[in-house]
Input
Amino acid sequence: MDPLQMAHSGPRKKRPRQMGASMPFPPHDIKFQDLVLYILEKKMGSTRRAFLMELARKKGFRVENELSDSVTHIVAENNSGSDVLEWLQVQNVKAGSQLELLDVSWLIESMGAGKPVEMTVKHQLVSPMVKKDYSASPNPEPQMTSPLVKKISQYACQRRTTLNNFNHIFTDAFEVLAENYEFRENEASCLAFMRAASVLKSLPFTIISMKDTEGIPCLGDKVKCVIEEIIEDGESSEVKAVLNDERYQSFKLFTSVFGVGLKTSEKWFRMGFRTLSKIMSDKTLKFTPMQKAGFLYYEDLVSCVTRAEAEAVGVLVKEAVWAFLPDAFVTMTGGFRRGKKIGHDVDFLITSPGPTDEDEEQLLPKVMNLWQRKGLVLYYDLVESTFEKLKLPSRNVDALDHFQKCFLILKLHHQTVDSGRCSQQEGKTWKAIRVDLVMCPYERRAFALLGWTGSRQFERDIRRYATHERKMILDNHALYDKTKKKFLRAESEEEIFAHLGLDYIEPWERNA
Output
C-alpha cells in the first residue's frame, strides 16, 4: 500500500508496525524552513505518530521530537480543539496567535501535494479568536467553536468540482462498483455509487476517518461500509471481487470496442466468448459497420487522446467548417472543455447565426465529403436532426438530444500534432481518433453547450435540480418553466444558471 494511503487509514488494528516514537530517524533534507511541526501522540498512539513523523521528514518537513518554542504547527488526530488546548495547558504552553493547531488531514494533504497546502476551516482545530482569548486568560476555560463547514449539497450543480480529487482511493472504488452495477443493469445501485463518488470528488479535504463523513449527502449504508473497509484495510474486498469477476472483466473488454453496448456484450458472454481475438475470428458473428471500425482501429481508439491531439483535431474541424460557413462558432466540449489533459474522444459543438436551415443541414455532409477526398475519414455515421419534430420539453434526463450529429473516426497525421502525444505503433504515421460533431440551431447554443460540456453526473444533477427544486424542465434544447408555462430564453450558460437561481459554475469546476 502507498505510504499516504497508510497514513489515511488511521490506527491499524491488523498487522501493526513494530515502530516506537523513540526510534532514531535518518537525516532528511528540510525543504520548508519556516514550518516546524510537532505531532501530538494523544489519541494517536506512538506507532502511528512515529510512522507519520518519518513520512513527513521524508517529504521535506521539519518535525520535532519534543515540543519547544520553535514549533509553529501542532498536528493532532481524533482531538478537538479544546482537547489540544487542555493538553497545552498541562504542558504550561500558551497557544499564541502564531501557533497553528491542525487536524492530521492537513499534514496528509500536504504530503500528498509535496508542499504545505493552504489551511482551511476544515483543517484548523481552533479559530484564531479562540486562541487569542485562551492565551489572554490566566486560567482559561477550554472552549471550541464549531467549524464553519459549508453545507454540502446533494446536487453537483451546487458544488464546485475541479480535477483536484483528494479522495481517489474511495472514488476509484465507487466507480468500479458503479460500472459493475451498470453492466448488470442495476440502475439504482449504479446511481448510488456514482453520486457518492461525485460528492467525494468535490470535497476540499481527504477523508481519513468515518467521522469525516458526517453530514455528507449521498452516502448510504452500502457506500459507508466500503469507505470504512478502505480506511481500515486500505482496500475494498467487494471491489477486489468485482475486478476478479469473469463477467465484469468480459463486459469491460467488450464495451471497450467502439459500437458495442450492453446487449451485445451480454450476447457474446452467454455464447462463451472471453477474448476479442476469438470474437473477431468467429465466422458466425455479424458486426455492424461501427463495430467493424471499432475492431479495425481498436488499439488507437482505446489509447488516450492528448490535449495536443484534441487541439490538432480542432484545427482540422475549424478549417473544414469555415470553408462552408465562415461565421460559424466551433467549440470543443466534453472533458477537454472541463480542463482534462487526456480523453477517449473529442466533441465539438457547431452553430452559426447566419445560415438557412438548408445550410445547416448540408454542413456536416459537406465536411465529410471534404475529408473523404483528403483521405481523413476512416468511418462516419451521420444522424439527421429530428429537432423540428421534437415535442418540447423532453423529460428524459439521460436521452440524447435531437440535433444533427456525426460520429466519426478521423485519421490524424503525426506532423499535425505538437509534442506530448500518446505512444504510437512503430512506423505508423497517423492515429485514429474518435470525434463527435454536433450541429445545433443558434438560438439553442447555450443549452447545447451546457449539455455537451458535462460531466455526466453534473448534467443529471442540474436537470434533477431544475425539476425538483425549481419546477422547471431542462435539456439540451431548452428550459421550460412549468409554473409560468413558458420557455425561458438564454443567450449563454450564465443565463441558464441565473434562471435556475444557481451560482454560475465554470466548466473546469464541473468534473463531477
About this structure: Residues 11-25, 129-149, 419-423 have pLDDT under 50 and may be disordered. The chain has five domains: 3-136, 156-243, 246-296, 302-443, 456-509.
